[in-house]
Every structure is written in structure tokens, then in C-alpha cells.
Amino acid sequence: MTVVVIVGSQWGDEGKGKLTHYLGPDFDLVVRFQGGSNAGHTVKTHGETYKFNLLPSAILYPDRTCLMADGMVVNPARLLDEIKFLKKKNLWGDNLRIGSHAHLVMPYHILLDELEEKRLGGRAIGTTKQGIGPCYADKFARLGIQIGDLLHPSALRERLGTVVELKNAMLKGVYNHDEPYSVDGLYDNLMRAAETLGPLVVSSVETVRGHIEQGNSVLCEGAQGALLDVDYGTYPFVTSSHTVAAGACLGTGISVSEINKVIGVSKAYTTRVGNGVFPSELTGETGNHMRERGLEYGTTTGRPRRCGWLDLVLLRYTLKIHGCTELALTKIDVLDGLKTVKVVGSYRKNGSTSTITEISDRQLSQCEPVYEEFKGWEGPISGARSEEELPPELVRFVDFVEQEVGVPIRMLSLGPDHDETVWRIPKIQI
Ligand code: GDP
Ligand code: IMO
Ligand code: MG
Q: Does residue 429 sit within a domain?
């Protein structure tokens, strides 16, 4: 039995989808454990590109069970679209299961997300407007609707009655929104979704525990990144779930002691979508180079991603919080052709070197990055399939990062395609 967790080690979009799809065939069960359709995970294989918002990125392997576990929040309409897309392409393997305690993202969650962002104006979070915050808020306020409720129509209708009354009052009272939701309308839509989704609902805990107890291997696919974690990220500019590796336990029922490996994923530079602090952000030519070469536009929203140098202060922090046993360094090819490549080695505050005592939007806003510089490499490097084929300048860069963060870098990703990957010896052993 092996349990491996893949997690983002920056502000998301590090390439978790590529790695999950790459390692998927080695696992019996592949699980998404938090977040919802705010995630956008890309898989490029055999010349085709797939973008998954809710489905685990191993869904293309019909003989691998994919579970959307209890810690997720699920917009049924978005999920039905993803399933429909795969069915149309003849790629639906009927290998999806959904944990009964996963919460439903309701239309009023999406509306509240939009209205609240508008209310915040210049202080907006820059959310994906997928209703994630309001849905998790309802979960913790014990006002949520769970996927499993779809199997109990009369109780569901009653619960909707209670919750929708409150939502309508809030929409009118706080946001002066005049179009109340009808319980019947919401209920009918859920019942239609239940025709397809109902048969996929399982006990998440029983599914995961069953695999573990049979000695099967389990891969947990994180969404977002550690710096977006609701407690350990740059609050309040974060998402509303636990994106750190421990979230895999909370979201699935796997116990902490059962996790064997945690693979952090980091780009060779940094990106961020949405608002909030970004010490190494580049607003000029080099940032544009990263955005254009790296196609840094949001998978979910299409928003241009903010780009900057790799920040080793932040990476050291996130790898520790995750408890990473190895690191996958992605999108290295995007730096091809740059004369100089930089990384943040430390921060300065009020003119002197600063030790970061906490990672928060406030604290980081007061820090000035101090850079280490490296000679760049020519490229293109995407064709390399072993470390020996890589330019020595790049190997020096990777060795430096590895030494600085104290975690072995096993996978180097040199392009979006499955095959554009180099494993440093030894390859991650499952
Ligand atoms: P995720 O959310 O962590 O799964 O990452 P996204 O899919 O949102 O964003 C990563 C983007 O970079 C996608 O468009 C991937 O196809 C692409 N990508 C992944 N790895 C590499 C790489 O090594 N090089 C390049 N150029 N693109 C990559
Ligand atoms: P993946 O899994 C990058 C960001 C949003 C915003 C903040 C809060 O593809 O890496 P939310 O809609 O979650 O309330 O937005 O979090 N965000 C992401 N940024 N990648 C993601 O997911 C993200 N999911 C949310 O841009 O700043
Ligand atoms: Mg993404």
C-alpha cells in the first residue's frame, strides 16, 4: 500500500494536473480532496489537451477509480458538463465516484461570490466566482447541502426550504438583490442532476479505506497551492479550503500516519491569479516573456496570470508546511532564452535582512526580495529526455534550488506534454 499526495507549492497552477495524469497509471485510486471548480488542471497527452475543473486528472484511465472525496465542493452543472464532454469524446470510463459528504455549490453561492466581490470593490479577493467561499462558509455554518442529500428527495426539499429562506433574506437585505430563489426551481434542477450523479454517490471513507485495507495504492491530487491555504496562505487573499497536504487527510478520511510521500509541485518561476501580495512579481518585459511563453492565462477564468521569479523563501516555507518528501519542478522551458535567471534567496525589511516569522499578506507586503542570479540557457530544452541532455547552466540552477529548499527534485517538467518530462535518478518510486 502506498499513499502519495500531490500538492501545489505556490499560488496554484503549478502543473499538478500533468503530474497526476503522469503518475495515475501507478495507482488504483486517484482522489481529489478539496476545492471545486475554482481549480483548472491541464493534461496534455497524445496531442490533445484536456482541462479538468472537478474531475480528478487521472479520469482518462478507465481502469483507475477516480474519487471526488468528501472535502470537495461540487457544482453539479459543471460536473455534468465535464462528464458530458468525456462521453461525447468517447472517453467516459464510468470510473468516477463522488463522496456523499461533498458539498453542493448552489446557484446562490455563485451569486453571493459575485456580489461580495463587487461589494469589496478595490479590496476584492479576485476569486474565480465559482461560489467556493460561500459554499465552504455554509458547510462550516452547517447550512450546506451535501451530494448525498440527492438520494433523499423529501429531506432535501425540506432542507432547501430552510436554507433558501435565509439566502433570499440575505440577498435582499445585504445586497439589495430583488430576485429571490425559488425552492421548487432549485429542487427540480437538483433532481435532474441526480439522475446522472445519484448512481455515482458513494461513501468516500468506505471507498478510500477499502482500497487502503486491500493494500492498494492511492494518489491524492491537491488543488490550488499552499499559499492559497485558508490558514497558511496569504490571508485574506486565499481560497476557502485547506490546500496543504494535511488537507488530503481531512478531505478523504486517510489518516496522517498512512501518507507515504508528499510531492510538492512548483514552477521554475512564480505565478499568481487574483489579488494579493507577490514580492517577486515582474511587470515588465521578463514578466511578459513568462506569460506568453508559459501561456499564463487562467485555466478556469482566462485571466492573465501575474508572473515573477521563483521565490525560495516562500518555497522553503510551503514545502515544510506540506511535509514534502520530493519536489517536481515544472515549466523550466519557459525560462529558455533568458540571459539571466533569478530566484529570491531572502527578504529585506527596513533595509536589513529579515527572517520571516509568518506568511501573511501584511508581513510579505513589507518585505523586499533579495535575488540570487544565474546565467540563463539557450534552449529549446523540451526535447531532452535525460538530465545529461540538459544545458549545464540549467542543471546548476536546479541543483541550487534543490540545495536551498532541502528537498530532492525528482521530476523536471520541460513542456506541457506528458512526454516532455525528465526524471532525475532515482525516479519517484511508488
Ligand atoms: P494545475 O492547476 O497545477 O494543474 O496547472 P494548470 O493546468 O492550471 O496550469 C499549468 C499550465 O502549464 C497548463 O497549461 C499546462 O499544460 C502547462 N504546463 C505544465 N507543465 C508544463 C511545462 O513543464 N512546460 C510548459 N511550457 N507548460 C507546462
Ligand atoms: P488550481 O487547482 C490558481 C485563487 C483565485 C483567487 C483565490 C480565491 O488550478 O491550481 P476562490 O475562487 O477559490 O475563492 O478564489 O484563489 N485560485 C486559484 N489560483 N489556481 C487555482 O487552482 C486557484 N483556485 C483559486 O484566483 O485569488
Ligand atoms: Mg490550474
A: no
SS3 at position 202? strand
My answer on whether 171 and 285 are in the same domain is no
| Catalytic-residue membership of 101 | no
For the stretch 197-231, pLDDT in tens is 999 999 999 999 999 999 999 999 999 999 999 99
| The three cell numbers locating residue 270 | 512564480
Is the whole-model pTM more than 0.90?
Answer: yes
Catalytic site residue from 41, 101, 109, 289: 41
Asked if residue 17 has its Cβ within 6 Å of ligand 1, the reply is yes
Any atom of ligand 1 within 6 Å of the Cβ of 291: no
Q: Supply the CATH number for residue 146's domain.
A: 1.10.300.10
pLDDT > 90 fraction of the chain, expressed in percent and rounded: 93
Per-residue DSSP letter, 194 = H
pLDDT of residue 350: 83
Q: pLDDT digit string (tens) for 379-398?
A: 899 999 999 999 999 999 99
Q: Is 103 a catalytic residue?
A: no
> Is residue 98 situated within a structural domain?
no
Are 192 and 219 in the same domain?
no
Cα–Cα distance measured from residue 124 to residue 121, given in angstroms and rounded to the nearest whole number: 5
* Judgement on whether residues 217 and 359 belong to the same structural domain of the protein: yes
The total number of structural domains that make up the chain: 2
Domain shared by 189 and 208, yes or no: no
* DSSP states along 400-411: HHHHHHTS-EEE
Nearest to 1 by CA among 251, 219, 205: 219
Mutation test residue for ligand 1: of 9, 42, 43, 273, the one with most atoms within 8 Å of CB: 42
Residue 57's SS3 state is: coil
Cβ of 335 closer than 6 Å to ligand 1, yes or no, is no
Identify the domain containing residue 177 by its residue range.
103-198
In ligand 1, which atom is closest to the CA atom of 44?
Answer: 16
